[in-house]
């Protein structure tokens, strides 16, 4: 993996918040540390979670706004010729009725 360091301007953060450039948003989603302004701009509602398997057994979680941006990000940041599979994870929550007197 390459190491990308970027200082995010207010204009960049506005574009990320509004998903003006899905690839830029994907790069942002995969940062490891965030400033307070960046945390406030973080677009959780746009984030999709992908798990990438590489030959040799390495597994990496990557966030992207869409599949096209995912592939562009992988080609930019990783050796995409080593990818053996890509899975998108969907997490859902469903309310469950509480039964009185039942201890689980």
Name the helicity range: 25-40%
Order of helices and strands: HHHEEHE
In spatial order, strands of the major sheet run 2-1-3
DSSP strand (E) fraction? Answer: 15-25%
- The coarse silhouette is flat
Q: How many strand segments?
A: 3
C-alpha Rg, in Å?
17 Å
Average pLDDT, all residues: 90
Count every helix, treating DSSP H or I runs of 4 or more residues as helices.
4
Largest sheet: 3 strands, antiparallel
Give an account of the 3D structure.
The chain is an alpha+beta fold and 104 residues long. Helices cover 32% and strands 19% of the residues. It is built from four helices and three strands. The protein has a three-stranded antiparallel beta sheet. A hairpin with a 4-residue loop joins β1 and β2. α1 packs across α2 and α2 packs across α4. It is flat and about 55 Å long.
Features:
104 residues, alpha+beta, 4 helices, 19% strand, flat
Summarize the SSE layout with pairings.
Blueprint: H1 10-17, H2 22-29, H3 36-41, E1 48-54, E2 59-64, H4 67-77, E3 83-89
Antiparallel strand pairs: 1-2, 1-3
């Amino acid at each position: 993996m390459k190491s990308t360091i970027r200082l995010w301007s207010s204009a960049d953060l506005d574009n990320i918040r509004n998903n003006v450039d899905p690839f830029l948003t994907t790069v942002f989603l995969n940062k490891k540390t965030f400033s307070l302004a960046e945390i406030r701009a973080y677009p959780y509602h746009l984030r999709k979670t992908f798990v990438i398997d590489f030959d040799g057994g390495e597994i990496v979680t990557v966030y992207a706004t869409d599949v096209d941006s995912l592939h562009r990000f992988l080609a930019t940041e990783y050796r995409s010729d080593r990818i053996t599979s890509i899975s998108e994870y969907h997490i859902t929550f469903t309310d469950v009725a509480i039964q009185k007197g039942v201890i689980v």
